Amino acid sequence: MTIEADIALLGTDGDGIARTAEGDRLFIPGALPGEHVLADRVDERTAHLTSILRPSPDRVTPPCPLFGTCGGCAIQHLSLAAALDWKAGLVVHALERAGFAAPAITGTVQSPPGSRRRIDLAVRRRPEGVCIGLHARRGDVVDLTACPVLEPALFALLPALRAVMQSLGALRRDGDALINMLDSGPDLLLATDGPLEAADRAKLASFARDHRIPRIAWRRAGTTDVPETAAQTASVRHELSGVATMPPPGAFLQPTREGEAAIIAAVLAGLPRRLVRKDTVIELYAGCGTLSFALGQHVRTLAFEGQPDAVATLRRATTGTRVVAEQRDLNRQPVMARQIADARAVVLDPPYTGAGAQMAEIVAGRPERIVYVSCNPQALGRDAAGLQAAGYRLDGVTIIDQFLWSTEVEAVCVFTAPPAPRRRTR
């Protein structure tokens, strides 16, 4: 059934949302707020866009020929400025639901096209050859033959990677390829559904030499096994705030250099003023040290991280810094309130699901300042609700859009504890 509809807003998956005559939400991929459209009903909740009768002034021509097929980008038809405003709105709405009225956006940063330095790709062998790319929305792998998001040097590696994966006996049907562009060059973590034999290792070694790839690691697809080095031609190196580190295979990096710099700047700006040498900041979910070494330039930093390889990276690089790294599974063994209470501030960059049990200890410890780096507005809202209930004030929010044209958004939120009650004197 074809319907005529006005698009009221954009949903969290980037779909236009209209209201049916019955008042129900109808999701129309490709439609934008303010548009008047024709669409064919697919089911009770979704419709297929067939015609735009009145386009939005924010509609633009998507820059990628794969848009609408590849699942990596959802809103290339929306102008970059409007996309940034929409993402800021997602964060503001989450914080308002947590109880913070009219959150103040103190800064916005948007990474440019061609700046993405990290990507996790699906690999699939087909009768016509190997494709490397991203999954279509609820669909198969789409070969990445174009990508305006990736750094050009990273994208330029894909044809040769496609060819070498085609030659591997270890790739029977499915695999993965995670690529980080480190300061030392591309760092690859491959996964295949078959074992890596000697002939495959020789092919990967030749590929690494030909394309100046310092390291290629491998593990069996579908496992969380510690990766093994399949080929190494040089040492791996990556600087974090001027400190040389050796990240493990598949290490988490902020996806763009611009985004990383913006997050660091917002975190440092959120620290208490007049820090003295004896002061300590507790950093939670520290990873390999993206924030740790920046913090350590200003204050003694206790960096907690659960992944053993990330902690090992941190510890190798802490000599001569004011960073102390400790391995701790913060879901099972959170840093306790009594230790948090001794810190001038807590900085946390939790996983997508949020801080979980650790948040209760943060609230109970009542540190003077909490700087929360979020990659998920919904999880941010859940965690921030506890801070609002404890009387914390939201001093500012920085919005960082480094997942360009996707629906993902990051934010740095600064929370300040309420003044301690004064003691009564007789």
Automatic annotation (TrEMBL):
Keyword Iron: yes
Similarity comment text for this entry: Belongs to the class I-like SAM-binding methyltransferase superfamily. RNA M5U methyltransferase family.
A family per Pfam: tRNA_U5-meth_tr
UniProt GO BP: rRNA base methylation
Binding site for S-adenosyl-L-methionine: Q254, Y285, E305, D349
Matching InterPro entries: NA-bd_OB-fold (IPR012340), SAM-dependent_MTases_sf (IPR029063), TRAM_dom (IPR002792), U5_MeTrfase_fam (IPR010280)
Keywords (A to Z) from UniProt: 4Fe-4S, Iron, Iron-sulfur, Metal-binding, Methyltransferase, S-adenosyl-L-methionine, Transferase
One MF annotation (Gene Ontology) recorded for this entry: rRNA (uridine-C5-)-methyltransferase activity
Name recorded for this polypeptide: Class I SAM-dependent RNA methyltransferase
Record: active site: C375
Coiled-coil regions, chain positions: none
